[in-house]
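Input sequence (186 aa), recorded before submission:
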Amino acid sequence: MPSLIVEPPNTQHFIMDSEDRNRNKNIGKNFMCRLQCMFSHSSGSESRLSLEDTQQWSQSLERLMESKYGLATFRNFLKSEYSDENIEFWLTCEDYKKIKSSFRMSLRAKKIYEQFIKAESPKEINIDYHTREQIKRNVKTPTMHCFDDAQRIVYGLMERDSYPRFLRSDIYRTLLESLAADATKG
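Predicted structure, token format:
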């Protein structure tokens, strides 16, 4: 015979959800503070992290990487997943393109090759054999464009894989929620 005693609803689940929400809100606020502290010494149009700017990160990877806060947040996300070699390579290549001295360019090209391109390198990026071999030849007489093919491949990988994961991540969602909560408080 079924029992007529009705068990009270499980409130433990509600408490856990509430605690998780509070923890995530605190994580978002802590992360926001860390981001703003990282850039507090710099001046410019992006002096404070805003909800609107953070929402724009979801428009494109390019938009995300144009933002100093967006780039820092994306890098932290990738580090947390132990998959930051692609962004590090891409940024290193952007810096490499600014080198004017052919001697420094040659030294830096070899260093980039050893660190990111060479098979079994410490931060080996995921590129095809043909591109890897082409770069190996290019590094012998480097130009500012000798890593362009690999950089395009890596950007595509980030755009198709890492970036969508970032947009679904707790770190991004929590940051948005925290900024939205702050915006409603005024």
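Checked by second reader. Residues 59 and 167 are 10 Å apart (CA to CA).
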